[in-house]
Design a protein that fits this description.
Blueprint: H1 2-20, E1 23-34, H2 44-51, E2 54-55, E3 60-64, E4 77-80, E5 86-92, E6 96-101, E7 117-119, H3 121-128, E8 133-136, E9 142-150, E10 159-161
Parallel strand pairs: 1-9
Antiparallel strand pairs: 1-2, 1-5, 3-4, 3-6, 6-8, 7-10
Length: 167
């Protein structure tokens, strides 16, 4: 009787572990867009070209399982996009993953203010602690799309620019 119970319990636990370890394929595409930052008003064609998403080759991002402790290195998975801005990775089903840029995988550093830029430390901390993309996996494959926008030098994220404008 005890032996049968032990076998049944062992089979149940093995199945529960196997389900928790089910891997799914996650494919992704990372792109970039940017603002126009030079002198006179550009043509509409140039503005449209800058607004079009372009593949980001060799972009390093990290995948984490928690955003509560940004300095914690456990659970990090480093991935690099190919020449077309694409990546594939197998992840566990039933888990929430956070995709972050490489700078967020390091310790947070607020840049020093200069004569041209004043940095907002609270804004940088909020951005540092926020994922670029959140994925809750299920038993099926997933596709991730992330676009990184590059602002002009005179309009930096979390900064106030008060220097001269370029011609």
């Amino acid at each position: 009787m005890y032996r049968l119970f032990g076998l049944l319990l062992g089979a149940f636990l093995w199945n529960a572990t196997a389900v928790g370890q089910q891997k799914i394929l996650v494919s992704g595409y990372i792109t970039s867009t940017e603002d126009y930052c030079n002198g006179a008003r550009p043509s509409d064609a140039l503005l449209q070209e800058l607004a079009n998403e372009k593949p980001l080759p060799n972009k390093v991002i990290y995948i984490k399982t928690t955003m509560k402790n940004p300095k914690c290195k456990s659970g990090f998975k480093k991935i690099t996009t190919d020449a077309n801005g694409r990546f594939e990775i197998n992840l566990n089903a039933g888990t929430t993953y956070y995709f972050i840029e490489e700078w967020k995988a390091k310790g947070m550093k607020v840049p020093k203010n200069t004569s041209q830029i004043t940095w907002d430390a609270a804004c940088i901390k909020e951005r540092y602690n926020s994922p670029d993309y959140t994925l809750e996996t299920s038993a099926t494959s997933h596709h991730v799309f992330i676009n990184y926008h590059k602002p002009c030098y005179n309009n930096p994220f979390c900064g106030s620019y008060h220097g001269p404008l370029r011609p």
